[in-house]
User: Which sequence fits this backbone?
């Protein structure tokens, strides 16, 4: 006997939501790996948490390993923001300056997310093109 159908709606309890996110993220990454292995396909997975943390999965069997490691070592967005904040003296800022700094940090985080997404899409496109060159579609008449 299978499980009942889960109603999809936002989990209101913050702790339960975080636990569910962690479990489902792990399951999704496992499924991505299984898909890559079983079907011999390239899989790139990006997950952004509600706190802006980026989780990545690259199937590196045939994907260019350098592209995946570039994405993984380009830095956690929160670490980059922390480095920027270290150059600022936050204790001396007033509410207006802190609000402006927060807006700047949000803009930086959006740029980082966008760039990382671009890199992942470029890597996926390159793999797709490489695969289509290896296995061209048969001619149809």
Assistant:
């Amino acid at each position: 006997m299978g499980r009942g159908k889960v109603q999809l709606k936002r989990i209101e309890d913050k702790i339960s939501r975080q636990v569910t996110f962690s479990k489902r993220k792990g399951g999704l990454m496992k499924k991505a790996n299984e898909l890559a292995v079983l079907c011999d396909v390239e899989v790139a997975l990006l997950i952004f948490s509600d706190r802006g943390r980026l989780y990545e999965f690259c199937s590196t069997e045939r994907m260019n390993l350098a592209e995946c490691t570039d994405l993984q070592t380009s830095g956690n967005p929160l670490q980059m923001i922390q480095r920027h904040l270290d150059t600022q003296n936050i204790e001396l800022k007033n509410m207006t300056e802190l609000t402006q700094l927060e807006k700047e940090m949000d803009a930086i985080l959006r740029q980082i997310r966008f760039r990382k997404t671009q890199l992942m899409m470029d890597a996926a496109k390159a793999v797709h093109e490489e695969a289509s060159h290896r296995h061209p579609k048969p001619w149809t008449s």
User: Anything to note?
Assistant: The helical segments are 14-39, 65-73, 77-86, 95-134.
